[in-house]
Amino acid sequence: MESEAVMCRFHAVYHKINQALDNIPFDKLGVSIEVKEQVELMRMQLKRAKRRTDTQDMELAMDMIVIFSKKDERNADIAILERLANKLELHTIAELKAEKTAIAKLVKQRGGYNETMHQIVDLLGKFKQIAGIDETVSLDGPISTRTAQTCQSPLVPHEFVCPITLEIMTDPVIVATGQTYERDSIRKWLNSNHRTCPKTGQTLEHLSLAPNFALRNLILQWCEKNNLELPKKDNYASSVNYSAEIMEEISSLVLNLSSSQPNVRRDAIVKIRMLSKENPENRIFIANDGGIPRLVQLLSYPDSNIQEHTVTALLNLSIDETNKRLIAREGAIPAIIEILQNGTDEARENSAAALFSLSMLDENKVLVGNFNGIPPLVALLKNGTMRGKKDAATALFNLSLNQANKSRAIKAGIIPPLLHLLDDKNLGMIDEALSILLLLASHPEGRNEIGRLSFIETLVEIIRNGTPKNKECAVSVLLELGLKNSSLILAALQFGVYEPLREISISGTNRAQRKANSLLQHMSKCEHIP
User: For 33-41, what is the mean pLDDT?
Assistant: First the structure.
């Protein structure tokens, strides 16, 4: 994409400027102290820019790992999908159409699909869903024949056309701003955790949808006059009172969370767990009815089954960003950590996933660290089920973006299980392990523990024989370590890293090429390395 090319040019420019500043002979030029200070300030800013970009690259990589996980039937955090769409600049209808066209050309050039292409098409489909576009991604034809015909037709009055699908509406509904949309389309928009009006961008004061009977009658009259048949909606009549019925049911369930009858209370938790998974309207209704404080109280209930359902309900509710703050404010984090330590396997997995979701907010990263949540996550990474290890890894990655948490993770013994993940190819978690190791390598304690010859040999082996993503991560870790300790670069050369590194600098992923070139340049500057 064009943004990637711009980023690569930026990297090349700041590297050249940094190199030039390194080679300025200040003593010979006789420059003033003020000029030296200005130059030093510029060098610091360049280094900060590099660190920010590297962190964004790592976040992007970890987000991709989470989204592409095929062994997890739980909903991916919508916040991750939205963050990915924004980083990749694929969040408007025009951008998604352009990307679809580009992918179709790429498939044609390569003579068909491979696994990577299937993943890309699947991801594009997820982006279309959060953008509120109701269509299956197909690379064999136009994006939407019906949409194109509607757009080209001068006969259809524009007020009859949904602003999202650009198709004539069959079930028009009014949102809080007064704008009208096709019910299914605006539901998909809201189900993707949006709280704004797609057309005006205004924040919606509520998420209720009111049927626009007047407009629907006008559309029916216009269709009859022009001999057109409006597509039938099977669920039109039943959908009118959907929100009111759900709100009433949720209010009753929230009250039942405090019932003195164990069966009533358990049934309410299970039902809220299910409703909170279905769509964002339900998550908001549950929170607005006071469900979160009651659920937080039930985290400490002396019944492992109740704890499991409760922590999972809170995991689902935490997909909403406002709920992330509310759950933390109600004191849920210590109780979730307790379940992470002592709960059932599924409860521990979902506790780790909940901590991952909550730690999307920086203030919650601090809270999880302060409440000693990192040691039990490390224990889950070491001894958990396959899904438990995945959940622990993603949570630990997020938490280790905080500098204090890096030290906590190292002291909790995170590095040995990460190294085990590199050795056990059957687990399929090399990228996750390397991404976390890259964060820890920026910490002095982490470098001391990671920087051993056996680990350098493992990195070289991955650089030689890993997947393109494996290689990218391994080169990044080696660069981080080598910049601080040139003897590790020498060791890597002795293990045979030079030729595969040269190959990656030419044909690796964009990020891998940047890292490989930086590593090769660093090698050429080290005096004791030929």
Answer: 66
